[in-house]
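Note to self: user wants both folds in one dump. Writing first protein now.
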Amino acid sequence: MRNFKQILGLLALGAAIAAGCSSETSTGSGGGGGDTDASATSDGSTTGRDGATSDPLTCVVFGNLCSSNGQCCSQVCDLDSSTCASSLDAPGASGSSCAAATDCANMRCTADGVCADGDTCTSDGDSCAADSDCCGASCVGGSCQALNDSCSTAGNECGGDSECCSGFCDGGRCELAPSFCIQTGDICGRGADCCSGTCVIGDGANAGTCDMPPSGATNCADGVEGTVCGDCGDCCSRLCAPYGKTGRDICQPASGCHVEGELCREDTDCCGGPDTGLPGEGRVTCQKDDGAVIGICRSPTGGNGPACNPQGNVCHYTEDDYTCDNSSSQNNCCAGDGSFKACELDTLGVPRCNGLGDVCREAGETCASATDCCNDVPCIRNEEGALVCMEIPDGGYACVESGGSCTINGDCCPGTTCIRATGSSDGTCGVLEPPPYDAYEPPVVCAEFGQICELDSDCCNEIPCSNGLCRFPDVN
């Protein structure tokens, strides 16, 4: 099995190869959209359901044609323009193409689809000459209009975190991205950018705001993954820990199946979904409104017996190794003894039901999370769509290589992230950063939250390396 340093060396080589491609290269015919999922083919390339294919060592650069998220270096293929949009972590400079204000570092996207020259957007209520001058992307009667009346959206001047929809006031301005997704109430141009998966844009408007997550029968109140949090009780995953890039506490994703209250697209996205062969199978469904694409994993139902808590779902935990004092979840794991003793922390610190006891699952067997698997290998989708314990090939990595299946970033080898549609537990490990095409310098490859490491210095953004994974073992 290759070690961490060998992985970094091969990834750097792959990035060097990718740098040789032309910035004018385009992929696909523009027939798809931002929510087109990707799957791995036998040769390791990334293929959209519309048939478009891209080499896993290359990616389509900002502004060029795409038909699926997995083709883009930014990991976002804009639905309206069928071009690769900016990511929240790397917004465009003045002169870059844009589809929404959030694509631009200064939060100003002109009617011509170009990030405007000049300073950061004008705050609500101040004078303006064009919509693109304003942080709310709306200039009416020479005055910038606010997108909502409850908090200040990104780009607006602020005096403290509490004034901002993002909960992040930095340098006197509300920042857009304290997390990997946009917070409820903040400015958005597409639902894929929102933690809730929904961006509400009024008729004729240039921008909207991220809506609340779907509601339903669940014990989690809106704390979906990526949401800024104050403590573990705010989160569906019951893990509130710093986001590496900003240091702000966010609700961390759980690996494998989605826990109660998290977003979903299908019943199989949820812990306790059908046909898993695991304790509590079939007790949870993805609850969606009529016609909705995204819903939430609802609370477990009775099935053929008591409404016990299925394998992998969050549960009640109070031991000293937990980053929080208490996880306010059910205390009745299926196949357990009805107490918190069947509740264990997974590899990233999420308290989850384990009705399997000390028996681990072998490669190819079904699982709910990496914790179910022998040697803590990733729990990922197979070709039939079932979550199974990953098989490590001879000489392979203890992580998923580019083009392989994943559920969270932590499944992927350093230098790649898990590209997946909002709500889905089925993603593909893809290129993290676009190679610089003008004057290539090998990128610094580091491990994201949950990815493998050997030293603290291996991890991005000063995340500590704890027992071989980049994670925060003692947060609160």
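First done. Writing the second protein, which came from a different request thread.
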Amino acid sequence: MVTTFTRMDESTAEQWAVIGAETAKNQSRVADSILGLLRSLDDVVDGFSTDQLTHCLQTATRAERDGADDELVFASLCHDIGKAISVPNHPAIAAEIIRPYVRDEVYEVIRRHQDFQGQHYYHHFGGDPNMREHYRDAPWFELAARFADDWDQTAFDPDYDTLPLEHFEPLVRAMTATARQRDFPRAKS
């Protein structure tokens, strides 16, 4: 069914119920889009020793092998998907894409991961390698440091035993099957 309003200020609750039901029915397209963004990163190398898909897969593999929970593994896999669109603001892009599917601290880790990882390279560009210290009092600080130091900055090894995207696909589908209530209002059934 398709609604007929041409302006939102003329819509009805019944029409929004239709839109909500249709959106829920088509929720699987989120996983398809995320997997597509990840696949597109196999062409993005930008001078690194691995392409960005491999980097994302290695980051997620390291997180999984280190005992991270599903939200962190999912976020580790998706942390650089924003590079498919724009490298300079890729953390914000990736964080917003995964936000409806992860808890707030995981969202913040991904949103700020470049400043945490910058400890390992910002000095090469004349930047402040201590940018992470701006977030020292944040409740997610230690988690962001663990992500950056243990999983992300170490994930450029062409010889690492990296799990394939197919291994993570069920997780991507499970994590994106429903959005958190706080992020997307649902129509009442």
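Dump finished. Worth passing along: Residues 183-189 have pLDDT under 50 and may be disordered.
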